[in-house]
Automatic annotation (TrEMBL):
It comes from the Eukaryota. Residues 31-143 form the Alcohol dehydrogenase-like N-terminal domain. Transmembrane segments: none annotated. Keywords: Metal-binding, Oxidoreductase, Zinc. This is Alcohol dehydrogenase-like N-terminal domain-containing protein. Coiled coil: none annotated. GO terms for molecular function: oxidoreductase activity; zinc ion binding. InterPro entries: ADH-like_N, ADH_Zn_CS, GroES-like_sf, Zn_alcohol_dh.
Length: 149
């Protein structure tokens, strides 16, 4: 069925090429995950460096794009701070919460997850119609901020 597929721009690390392709819409959510319909994704210098091979990316193919906003489509059973229909921004970073950096408020340097679990670099990101992320990455937007901002 067409509604089970989405458009996604997949970057191949080996050939350094982007291919617009169809992928299955993520439907199976873990209890702590959220499915977001992407509204806007920024193009960052990190994306450009990654495409040139100057920044580490997941080997093989990855949907890049880590500056993402959108609308929540569905939530896992343990998610209670957002609901379907909410407008959100997505933090691409994931952290362990226990290493010396995370406990000091510098989770962008996380030794356990850090960049290895970054949405849009190692996990599929926002250059697609939908993105599945952990609930801790999703932040509701006030009505005063539009999705492109």
């Amino acid at each position: 069925m067409a509604e089970d597929l989405m458009q996604a721009l997949v970057f191949d690390v080996d050939t350094k090429t982007n291919t617009l392709t169809q992928k299955p819409v993520p439907r199976e959510l873990a209890p702590n995950e959220v499915l977001v319909k992407v509204s806007a994704t920024g193009i960052c210098g990190t994306d450009l460096h990654g495409m040139k091979g100057e920044f580490p990316l997941k080997k093989g193919g990855v949907v890049m794009g880590h500056e993402i906003s959108g609308v929540v489509i569905s939530v896992g059973t343990k998610v209670n701070h957002v609901k379907p229909g909410d407008r959100v921004a997505i933090d691409p970073n994931r952290d362990c919460g226990i290493c010396c950096y995370c406990t000091r408020g510098k989770s962008n340097f996380c030794e356990i997850l850090g960049i290895k679990e970054n949405t849009g670099l190692f996990l599929d990101g926002g250059f697609a119609d939908y993105v599945r992320v952990e609930a801790v990455q999703v932040h509701p937007l006030p009505e005063t901020i539009d999705l492109e901002t």
